[in-house]
Amino acid sequence: MKRLMTIAALFVVGCSPAANEPAANQTEKPATQEKPADVPSLVGEWSVTALGGKPLQQVFPMTASITTDKVTVHSECVTFVWSYTQNRNIVAFTPVSTGHCGRNQTTNENEIERAVKGANIALFAREGREVQLSGNGGTATLTRR
Question: Which of 40, 42, 92, 95 could form a disulfide with 128 if both were Cys (CB 3.0 to 4.6 A apart)?
Fold first, then answer.
């Protein structure tokens, strides 16, 4: 009988969790949540480098100047202006004006107009030196100058 009690005691000790382990029906306390990483600001000088994931097809550059509340995209003789808001990665753009020089807009100019107008998210890459503005109007990729 004494031998049976010793075997039973060893079995219980062998099946018990270690002092630093939670019991099987308990969960560990969640780790302290870290503060989310800072999201870069759109403010700055940018080059439009791709539309819809493809490099620009036009020979003249397309640039963007962004202040705290306004986006201005200039392409040869077409200038688009939007007001905007940014809350971390969530963005919203509202058309303000478009200036033309007398010619029809190029395909890329039409694409940037649709992409920015419909953008609702800004996805940053390369430590904030690149951003993709995406939404139901397509995608515009901008690279800091």
Answer: 40
Per-residue model confidence (pLDDT) at position 44: 98
- DSSP-assigned beta bridge partners for residue 99: 79
Q: Look up the domain containing 87 and give its range.
A: 44-144
CATH number of residue 122's parent domain: 2.40.128.270
Our count of domains for the chain comes to: 1
Q: What are phi and psi of 17, to 5 degrees?
A: -70, 150
| 117 domain residue, yes or no | yes
Could you read off the pLDDT of 71-106 as tens digits, one per residue?
Answer: 999 999 999 999 999 999 999 999 999 999 889 999
Of the candidates 84, 141, 89, the residue with the CA atom closest to the CA atom of residue 117: 84
pTM score, whole prediction: 0.75
